[in-house]
Structure formats: structure tokens, C-alpha cells
Design a protein that fits this description.
The chain is of the alpha+beta class and 69 residues long. Helix content is 39%, strand content 14%.
């Protein structure tokens, strides 16, 4: 059990947001996103984490800005 305090997250949070995502899932998500925007669009990725979507979108030619804590 985690100690109560500032910036403490529940076990459910860790289960939802910190599980490893299979590479094929990311590939499918990036392909979907790329189809939604015009080529070379400027994109803002909020809560981008380690850039799981931002980096591959940038590699496809999008101008991506990622923001996270």
C-alpha cells in the first residue's frame, strides 16, 4: 500500500498508464493519427510522456511539440 501524500497515485493509475504498450498498438495508433491530419501539420501532443506518439509522428514529417511534466 502506498503512503498518502502529495503526488501519490493509486495502483489503478499505475496499471492504466504505466503498462508497456505493444509496439504494434503504437504503430496502429500513429497510423490512425497520421490519417487524420494534413501532411506536414503542426501537432501538439499534451501529456506526451516519453513521446510514444510524438516521435514517430515527427519521423513521418509532422512538426510535433510534446508537453509533459
Amino acid at each position: 500500500m502506498m503512503n498518502a501524500g502529495i503526488n501519490q497515485y493509486s495502483e489503478e493509475w499505475f496499471d492504466c498508464f504505466l503498462k508497456e504498450v505493444p509496439p504494434r498498438t503504437t504503430e496502429n495508433e500513429v497510423a490512425f493519427l497520421a490519417r487524420q491530419f494534413p501532411a506536414k501539420a503542426d501537432l501538439l501532443d499534451l501529456c506526451c510522456g516519453d513521446g510514444r506518439h510524438a516521435a514517430p509522428l515527427a519521423a513521418l514529417g509532422f512538426d510535433v511539440t510534446g508537453i509533459d511534466l
